[in-house]
């Protein structure tokens, strides 16, 4: 096991942060934590419900507070929300506290991944496929300046197809091990 390590998975919604995070934690014998789930458990509401009731600005403050709590955790892989690194100085805090990994996925693949799961995603839930693509294109363009500050950028197109998923996780681990 890597001694007292903390990994933050960042990237756009649908990039695979939770799925990759769980497997990465298992392979590295670390605990896995999902920031969105942490918030949902704390507030006893879904992220969508928090967005609807309080708005995005209030949600981002809640998210920031939860992230600050997680900075104290050790030996953990943390899956963040897609917007987490893009608000306040969150990306700087994560980079200072641990190793950040950007799971980079193309717009077209994100659209494919998200179009059937949009009801769980408050920012796209009422959009059709073309609107989702336009939204992702514009929003990813704004967010990449933050994502690209990650310690590691890992191209994640076709992550769950083609090669064996476990092989790709092993390749990721080889890239991030000190």
Structure description:
It is a single chain. This protein has eight helices and five strands, in the order E-H-E-H-H-H-E-H-E-H-H-E-H. It has a single domain, classed as P-loop containing nucleotide triphosphate hydrolases (Rossmann fold, 3-Layer(aba) Sandwich), CATH 3.40.50. The chain is 51% helix and 13% strand. The chain is α/β, with parallel strands linked by helices and 178 residues long. A five-stranded parallel β-sheet has the order 2-3-1-4-5, sandwiched between helices.
**CATH classification, class level:** Alpha Beta
Helix content: 40-55%
Helix/strand/pairing category: alpha/beta
Q: Name the beta content range.
A: 5-15%
Low-confidence stretches: none
């Amino acid at each position: 096991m890597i001694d007292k390590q903390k990994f933050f998975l960042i990237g756009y919604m649908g990039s695979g942060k939770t799925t990759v995070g769980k497997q990465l934690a298992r392979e590295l014998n670390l605990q896995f934590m999902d920031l969105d789930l942490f918030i949902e458990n704390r507030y006893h509401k879904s992220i969508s419900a928090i967005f609807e009731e309080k708005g995005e600005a209030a949600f981002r403050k809640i998210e920031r507070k939860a992230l600050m709590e997680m900075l104290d955790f050790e030996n953990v892989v943390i899956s963040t929300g897609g917007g987490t690194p893009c608000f306040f100085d969150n990306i700087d805090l994560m980079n200072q506290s641990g190793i950040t990994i950007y799971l980079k996925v193309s717009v077209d693949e994100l659209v494919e991944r998200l179009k059937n799961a949009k009801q769980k995603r408050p920012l796209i839930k009422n959009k059709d496929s073309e609107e989702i693509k336009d939204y992702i294109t514009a929003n990813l363009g704004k967010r990449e300046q933050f994502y690209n500050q990650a310690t590691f950028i890992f191209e994640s197109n076709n992550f769950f197809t083609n090669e064996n998923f476990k092989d790709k996780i092993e390749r990721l681990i080889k890239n991030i091990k000190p």
